[in-house]
Amino acid sequence: MSTTRIANARPYGEDPTDLYVSGGVLVDAVDDPDETVDAEGLIALPGLVDLHTHLREPGGEEAETIATGSAAAALGGYTAVFAMPNTDPVQDSPVVVEHVWRRGREVGLVDVHPVGAVTVSLGGERLAEMGMMAASAAGVRMFSDDGRCVNDPLIMRRALEYARSLDVVVAQHAEDHRLTVGAQAHEGPVAARLGLTGWPATAEESIVARDAMLAAAAGARLHVCHLSTAGSVEVLRWARDTLLPGTGARVSAEVTPHHLLLTDTAAEDYDPVHKVNPPLRPEADTLALRRALADGLIDCVATDHAPHAVEAKDCEWSQARPGMLGLQTALPVVAATMVTTGLLDWRGVARVTSEVPAAIAGLSDQGRPLVVGEPANLVLVDPDARWTVRGADLASIADNTPYEGMELPVGVVHTMLRGRWTVQDGKVITHEV
Ligand SMILES: NC(=O)N[C@@H](CC(=O)O)C(=O)O
Ligand SMILES: [Zn+2]
Ligand SMILES: [Zn+2]
């Protein structure tokens, strides 16, 4: 069996050491390794895990495919992604989730775990075959109607009850659609000045509160997608401290890199690349989100990577689809907002980008410590690199990055999935036949 020596890497940014890989796992030092990779100055982290990716296949291949999205993920340092079900056809049956799962395996650059829809066709009215998707070859462990909220409280209650018996998690896109009819941007002075219909913070916060109560009553696991306001953080704090203890329920939450860095004033240029759901919020929210992520109140970072074709973005603001690319810029944005500010060290980064998301989704082979005996899913990053984002240079078919022209810190140099390089020197290593 061939052996790789990763020389002088700094696990979690700590003291340099050599890592050895053989048979897809980390092993003890070997005398004559077949391959040696010089990792002097590079930080080793467990491969990143994204609980919230839109890969667009099937049905949206003009914006992204499982192959191009997997390449973007590997280049971003990811070894596992959860593919949201708002595809066409919707991932609401075993046949569609198995298709996505198989295609992900064929491409082989990242573990693709399909998220199952909560309701048939994301229609919000009838529960999808959650049990069948969980029992399928894809082994679905997370369900969501993302893009839409499961707005009906009775449907949400039933979904949580099923989720509890199946031991799976329901990931909610928290938006009361009755409060966001026609909404275009965060409701506040900026949207008012720009003449854009407002998306009020309460549309999110009221659903987070309601769902926490429903989860507590059902003893179920709820995950809040792309949490975006300081008020939602306070609801979460109350749920953790007061509501949930003793119920057997668990409520986790993710924050996106763009909600950590960008603010509602980005809309001032009327460039729909800044249109996203939930909308970019005022600076006070971004600062509250950073603090909550550092404190562990927000559990993890998830990209909400949402590629859109040119036609869907190159139009007037109100017509444009919401969403932005995220996979290749996530770690740099987390570094810029959390590491350079002193809010997290690299151990903390590993926790919020890999260990905790893997645990939320119940993955036993991802987000593991970098020690002998563990699966060799890892990323080597250059903390001193700086690079300028160019949408055209990213691996996604779509180029809707909100960071165009921006200089970001930290470069992903190498990514390894189960002992095999998926990225070396910043280039994808394709294995597909
Ligand atoms: N985030 C977005 O603005 N868009 C997402 C859907 C979603 O995550 O709600 C998409 O699928 O494009
Ligand atoms: Zn969403
Ligand atoms: Zn999404």
Automatic annotation (TrEMBL):
Binds 2 Zn(2+) ions per subunit. It holds the Pfam family DHOase. Zn(2+) 1 binds at H52, H54, D146, D304. Its EC number is 3.5.2.3. Pathway: Pyrimidine metabolism; UMP biosynthesis via de novo pathway; (S)-dihydroorotate from bicarbonate: step 3/3. Substrate binds at H54, L55, R56, N86, N277, H308, P322, G323. It comes from the Bacteria. Signal peptide: none annotated. The keyword Hydrolase applies. Its cofactor is Zn(2+). GO terms for biological process: 'de novo' UMP biosynthetic process; purine nucleobase catabolic process. Catalyzes the reversible cyclization of carbamoyl aspartate to dihydroorotate. NCBIfam families: PRK09357.1-1, pyrC_multi. This is Dihydroorotase.
